[in-house]
Every structure is written in structure tokens, then in C-alpha cells.
Write a structure and sequence with these properties.
Elements lengths: L16 E5 L3 H13 L3 E5 L2 H8 L6 E5 L7 H10 L8 E5 L4 H10 L3 E4 L4 H34 L2 E7 L13 E3 L1 H6 L10 H6 L3 H17 L3 E8 L5 E12 L5 E10 L1 H15 L9 H18 L2 E9 L2 H8 L1 H16 L26 E6 L2 E9 L2 H14 L4 E3 L2 E3 L3 E8 L6 H17 L5 E3 L2 H17 L8 E10 L4 E13 L2 E3 L5 H7 L2 H23 L5 E4 L2 H4 L4 H12 L6 E6 H6 L1 H14 L2 E7 L6 H4 L6 E4 L1 H4 L6 H17 L2 E5 L4 H10 L3 E3 L9 H10 L12 H15 L1
Length: about 750
């Protein structure tokens, strides 16, 4: 279709072009002149044949035809004109001297837009032509708008419809009352000429949704309410789509509802996107399990249901053991693989439901709470299993045992076989909490009690565990302020050299004076390592040991080393050597005044990180001792290259000396190894004379333990040195009885 250009008739610079066709030369001349005077550009044609020839190459704004002409008259010319491409909508005014209804009807049948009775009223003719131009322009604008709307609806996969109840009641086979636009037919997979009834449309909806839709339609129609609904439909080609139906009622002059008008839109892509967004908002992107948001929603609904119907529910908090080690060693990609595999195994342990739940449960009395049951990922390596209905705690324990069992199988990640266990904490509703927060907190307490007692097990919450947790939390809070309040102290345990019967150094052992009691290291050192407080506490210990070494030097000429235990993370710090230098320089002490101890397990755990620091310490003259030697998994090859000065035999080997030959064999081997490497060897944990004598016989002369002294405050050590240890030169190699008599008070204390 060729559209005529838009014309602004109020703009005098834009003169409408008119083709005037008449066989009467005088009439043609007068009419043309009058129209030119009134703002028209007039082109003349004498006869229909000439007019059609001109129109083959040109399209005017209007055509004025004389009805009666010889040859091809106005009626025939109009019909021929309308058959030309692009002339379907050009305004045509028929001039006739006949004022009869038959001629007028014939003019309209030929395709004329309007007619005008010939007269000399040129202003009236001009006005009629201008009216035709305005009407044509308005119609073209409407067609453009309709075309744009159709295009927009087509892009939006939308179409309109009308349904009149009087013409097509629900259930009628007639399609006269339902009118679908071509765009609406395309949305429903139908052709532009297809006729469809309301019943046929309803049958496009799958049966399960059809019943619910019929109820909604009946309720809306009976009350003449607005209709808004999304429906799945099966198109004639078998495709499933989701359409949005929105309609409003129409009323007649008496206010009675006569039908509905509305739109139908294909919203499949939008619904898919919404479902995807809803899934991302409720499910973990890595494992596909319900995330924290969805878990909390399910737990809340499960608790409401349990309270309403009086049954119990259980919450299992599952934390993977040693996951950080695998993640750090094999990389985050391997860690993700592990989490995905763990998620699959956990799903199999419960009646897992992947349904996105965010509305109230339907049919609450029909055990619909089962749809809440699931395993979800709380975050990191923590998972939660929700059991919305259990008989008692034994049901939850059976599920936890099932979880522990499936975790025992190896997992291949990063091309390597790994074994991962889990710690499970159980909290019951209503016994262990009435809210989500209470249950999660108490399950967490139970889970950490498993961590503290060896992992790879399950434990149910009890108030005793909560008490321990609160005590631990309070203790950790107080530990943060211990350094500021000067509550940390060092006690010292001497090392004794049997050959000279003199003290050969001391080991500094940290204590915490909390309130009126003295907290043992076992109760706070591990906590300090977890919280990171071990670093400032270790730095304080080095400063305090250096200060005490200077005080003893002035008091009784102390010139030995004070051994300070440091965690392996301190040896990874680049500023450790500088810190020790500052501590020694502040009191004018030699470099050997401080000795550092690191456990064999700590040394080998991060050996490649510790080695550079050990060499820097050796360069500045600070000795390093390996504590608890024999209990770790050290490679003897490293001992030949590490700058180590001393080995300390663990007390577990000293305890059975003189009782089992195996202990003597181990000690003999360690002593021989130390001698061959040029290292000192110290036996710790010596508590009785039997152990001392066997060590002496095996060639280990440096000892430490309760037989000689318990760890004591600095002032008591000064007294011990003066009262217990023999003066230099008093002890001969064959005079052990005298040393025994001197040590008798300490032996009695140890017993």
C-alpha cells in the first residue's frame, strides 16, 4: 500500500495537487481556475482515458471526476483508478449534475469517496475538497497507528480479543462472540483465517490447570471483575507456552455486562527468566541445593506446621572436616568439585525436594510439610538437613548416621583421591528451640562439640554443651584483654645437666592469671591460635623472657638460655628476627640468651615456609630446638640440613623407661642420632629416679621434669637454684647418691 504524504492544509506553501477530469472545456476551465485561486495546484484531463494515462506516472492528492463523460465515464474511470496500485485510498470526488439516489449509490459503488453536485459555488467545492483531505489524513494516521500497534504487539507477542457473552455463552460451539486479532491468533499458534471458539481455547490448556482456570473464569464472569491470569497452553504444533491473559468487562447503556475485552500475550520467555531468577535467589549456584534464604523459609514453615499439629522437627548442621586443607592444597576448583559431590551424597540421605517454595503451604493437613524436607547449603562447607516431621531424636540420629556413612567413601577431586568426613550437630524442635535462630545456634553448639572431641561423628544438643560454649566464649573475650591487663605471666622450668649438677637453661611456659585462678596453657593456647591472639602473645613472651634474663643476670649471674615456645606461624613472619634483636638489644643481652622451640609437627607442617627463617636465626646466633621430638613425621634427611641446635625427647618415650624395652630403644636411637649430628638432646617429662637413671645410663644427661622442679615463678626459681642444685665441682661421676639426696624433696613432691 502506498500512503499519500501528510498534508498541512494550513501551510500555504504546501498546495494540494488535484487532478480535475471533465470533458466540458468550459467547466474544466472555470473549475480549475476557481480551485487555483483557492490554494490548489490543478492538473487537467479531458476524459477518463487521459486521466488514467497521467495516473500511471503520478499520484495526486485528490482526484475530481465528472460522472458523465463520453467514452470512459466517471464511474468506470473511478473503478479503473481503484485497481491501480497505490490508489486504494486516494480521495476521489465525483462531480455530477444528477441529484438522484441511484447516481449517488453508483458513485459510492464505483469507489468514490464523496460526491458533489455541479454548481458555481466554488467555495463550497473548495471546502468539500479540504474536508476530504483532512479526512484522508486522519484515516492514514489511524492506519499508521494501527500498523505500529500491530507491530508492537507482534514484537511483544501480544494480541487483543473481544468476547461478547450474549452472542457466545460459555460452552457454546459458535465462534461469533469471540473475536481474536491476527496478532492474538499468532500468539496461539493459529493462522489469520482460523476460527476458534472459547471452548477450543479452553481445551488448549492442560487438564490439571484447566479445572482451576475454569473455576477462576466462572468466578470472574459471575462478578464482572477484572481478569488477570497466566496459563500454560499447548499450541496446535505441540509446543508448550505460557500466555498472560488480561481482560476487563464491557457494559451496555443499562450497566449490564455484555462481555470482555482484553489482551493475550506470550510470556514464556519472561516466565523462564523469572523462574531462573527465582531459582538463583533460592538455590545455591554451585551445588544446586537450597540456599540460606530458602532454608530459613522452609525451616520457619516446618516449625509452624510442627507447632500446629504437635509433632517434632529436627535440624542437622553438617560441617566438613579438613575442607580448608583440601581447598588450600588442591585449589578452589577442586574444592568446588568436592562440594558438588558432597551435595549429591547428602541429597540422597533425605527426601530432598527441589521445589521453589515461597508461599503458604496448600492442604496443610495432608502431610504437605514433606515438600519442605531438604538438604541445603548454609554457606562455605556448612550444610543443613531439615527433617520437618520426626517421631523423636532417634530418627534424626539415623539420618546423621546415614550422612556419616556416605561420607566415608573416597572422593576424586583434582585427579586425586580424598577422604572427607563430617561433623554433625542435631537440634530438636521444640525441645532445643522454638525459632530458627535458636535451632541453628544450638545445632552449631552440638556440631562444635563434635569438632572438639575428634570430629567424624554426630552429637545432639544439650544444655551442658551450651554452658561449655558460653564459658569458652567468655574465656575468649577475656583473653583478648589479657595482655592489656597484664594478666599473662611466664613460669619457668629448669633444665638440669647431671654431669655438672647445674641448671643448663630454663623453658618459659605461659600462664594466664584470670581472676583469682591460674589458667593452664591447655585451656587457652589452642583458643589463642584459633583467634590469632597467639601472635601478640608470643611477641609478649619474647619481650618478657628477655627482661627476665637480664634480671636474673643481675641477681645471680644467670648466663644460660631461656627457651620460648613459638607456634609455626611465628616462624613464617619476616619480622621475627628483627623482633628478637629488639628484645635482646633493649636489655643488652647476647644473642644466645633466647632460645626458640618449635614442635616437630609444627616444623614439618609448613617446612618450606619455616626453613628461610631458621637460617636467618642461625645467622644471627639464635638457637632453635625441636620440641616433642619423635611424635611427628619428620624426615631424617631434613635434620642433616636444618640449622637445629637441640632435640627434646617427648615425655611419652620417657614415661616407660625401665619398664618396656621399646622406650629404651627409641631413646637410644634418638641420643645416637643427636650425637652423630652434633646436636644436644634433652629428655623432658622426667618424673622419677628410675627414668633419670635409665637416661643417665643411655647417655642423655640433660633433663627436665617434675623430678627436678615444676614450672615456677621467677622469684621461686632464684631460691631453687640456690637451695637445690649442687655447687660446681661438688658432684663426681660416681657420686649419684648425693644428687639423689639433694633431689629427694622434689621426688616427694612429684610422688
Amino acid at each position: 500500500m502506498t500512503l499519500i504524504p501528510e498534508i498541512d492544509l494550513d501551510d500555504l506553501s504546501q498546495r494540494p495537487q488535484v487532478l480535475l477530469v471533465d470533458d466540458d472545456e468550459l467547466t474544466l476551465l472555470l473549475t480549475a481556475q476557481s480551485l487555483r485561486e483557492r490554494g490548489f495546484d490543478v492538473f487537467e484531463a479531458r476524459g477518463g482515458e487521459l486521466a488514467l494515462a497521467m495516473l500511471a506516472h503520478w499520484t495526486p492528492d485528490l482526484v475530481v471526476l465528472d460522472a458523465l463523460m463520453p467514452g470512459l465515464d466517471g464511474f468506470a474511470s473511478c473503478k479503473a483508478l481503484r485497481r491501480l496500485a497505490g490508489f486504494e485510498n486516494v480521495p476521489v470526488l465525483m462531480l455530477t449534475g444528477l441529484d438522484d439516489e441511484a447516481s449517488i449509490a453508483r458513485a459510492y459503488q464505483a469507489g468514490a469517496t464523496d460526491f458533489f453536485v455541479k454548481s458555481s459555488q466554488w467555495s463550497l467545492l473548495s471546502g468539500r475538497l479540504r474536508h476530504l483531505l483532512r479526512a484522508s489524513r486522519t484515516r492514514l494516521e489511524l492506519e499508521r497507528s494501527k500498523s505500529k500497534l500491530a507491530r508492537a504487539q507482534d514484537l511483544a507477542r501480544m494480541g487483543s480479543f473481544d468476547w461478547h457473552s450474549s452472542a457466545n455463552p460459555i460452552g457454546s460451539q459458535s465462534g461469533l462472540g469471540l473475536i481474536l486479532s491476527p496478532e492474538a491468533l499468532r500468539v496461539l499458534g493459529l493462522g489469520p483465517k482460523d476460527k476458534v471458539t472459547l471452548r477450543q481455547l479452553i481445551r488448549m490448556v492442560p487438564l490439571p490447570e484447566r479445572r482451576a482456570m475454569t473455576r477462576v473464569l466462572s468466578a470472574v464472569a459471575s462478578q464482572s471483575r477484572l481478569l488477570t491470569i497466566d496459563l500454560p497452553v499447548k499450541l496446535p504444533d505441540g509446543r508448550m507456552r505460557v500466555v498472560h491473559l488480561e481482560a476487563e468487562p464491557e457494559f451496555n447503556e443499562q450497566g449490564r455486562a455484555i462481555g470482555y475485552t482484553g489482551i493475550v500475550q506470550d510470556v514464556t520467555d519472561r516466565r523462564v527468566a523469572e523462574d531462573r531468577i527465582r531459582h538463583l535467589a533460592n538455590f545455591d549456584a554451585l551445588t544446586g541445593l537450597p540456599n540460606r534464604r530458602q532454608l530459613i523459609w522452609r525451616i520457619e514453615r516446618a516449625l509452624d506446621h510442627a507447632q500446629r499439629f504437635g509433632h517434632q522437627a529436627a535440624l542437622l548442621l553438617i560441617d566438613l572436616d579438613r575442607f580448608k586443607l583440601i581447598n588450600d592444597t588442591l585449589g578452589h576448583a577442586a574444592g568446588d568439585e568436592l562440594l558438588i559431590e558432597v551435595a549429591q551424597r547428602l541429597r540422597a540421605c533425605v527426601r530432598h525436594s527441589d521445589q521453589v517454595l515461597d508461599t503458604a503451604l496448600e492442604t496443610p493437613g495432608a502431610r504437605s510439610q514433606r515438600s519442605l524436607e531438604a538438604v541445603g547449603r548454609l554457606g562455605g562447607d556448612e550444610f543443613v538437613a531439615l527433617l520437618p516431621e520426626v517421631v523423636d531424636e532417634s530418627d534424626a540420629r539415623r539420618v546423621s548416621e546415614r550422612i556419616l556413612e556416605v561420607m566415608r567413601a573416597p572422593i576424586w577431586v583434582g585427579g586425586q583421591e580424598c577422604f572427607v568426613t563430617a561433623s554433625v550437630g542435631i537440634a530438636m524442635h521444640p525441645a532445643d528451640g522454638l525459632t530458627v535462630v535458636d535451632l541453628l545456634r544450638n545445632a552449631d553448639v552440638a556440631m562444635y562439640s563434635v569438632k572438639d572431641t575428634g570430629r567424624n561423628a554426630a552429637a545432639a544438643y544439650s544444655p551442658v554443651l551450651a554452658g561449655r560454649g558460653r564459658e569458652k566464649l567468655a574465656l575468649e573475650s577475656a583473653l583478648h584483654k589479657a595482655i592489656e591487663r597484664n594478666e599473662l605471666v611466664l613460669h619457668y622450668q629448669p633444665k638440669v645437666d647431671l654431669r655438672s649438677a647445674r641448671m643448663a637453661g630454663v623453658e618459659a611456659l605461659m600462664r594466664w592469671r584470670h581472676g583469682a585462678s591460674l589458667v593452664a596453657p591447655a585451656d587457652f593456647i589452642a583458643m589463642a591460635e584459633e583467634s590469632g591472639l597467639i601472635v601478640p602473645m608470643s611477641e609478649w613472651a619474647l619481650r618478657e623472657a628477655a627482661r627476665q634474663a637480664k634480671a636474673w643476670s643481675l641477681s645471680f649471674g644467670f648466663a644460660d638460655s631461656i627457651a620460648v615456645n613459638l607456634p609455626n606461624r611465628m616462624f613464617e613472619r619476616s619480622d621475627l628476627v628483627d623482633h628478637i634483636r629488639q628484645c635482646l638489644s633493649a636489655h643488652g643481652l647476647p644473642r644466645n640468651a633466647i632460645q626458640l622451640e618449635i614442635t616437630e609437627t609444627g616444623l614439618m607442617k609448613d617446612l618450606h615456609r619455616v626453613i628461610p627463617c631458621l637460617h636467618r636465626l642461625a645467622e644471627v646466633g639464635v638457637e632453635v630446638s625441636i620440641d616433642d621430638f619423635g611424635t611427628g613425621y619428620s624426615s631424617l634427611a631434613y635434620l642433616t640440613t636444618l640449622p637445629i641446635a637441640e632435640l627434646k625427647i617427648d615425655h611419652s618415650f620417657v614415661r616407660d623407661l625401665g619398664l618396656t624395652p621399646q622406650s629404651s630403644a627409641v631413646v637410644t636411637a634418638i641420643v645416637a642420632l643427636a650425637r652423630s649430628l652434633g646436636l644436644r638432646v634433652v629428655a623432658e617429662g622426667v618424673e622419677n629416679l628410675r627414668q633419670m637413671e635409665v637416661l643417665d645410663r643411655l647417655g642423655c644427661f640433660l633433663m627436665q621434669g617434675f623430678l627436678f622442679s615444676r614450672p615456677m615463678p621467677p622469684d621461686e626459681l632464684v631460691h631453687w637454684v640456690r637451695q637445690t642444685i649442687l655447687p660446681s665441682g661438688l658432684l663426681r661421676s660416681d657420686d649419684r647418691d648425693r644428687l639423689t639426696r639433694r633431689l629427694r624433696p622434689e621426688v616427694d613432691k612429684a610422688d
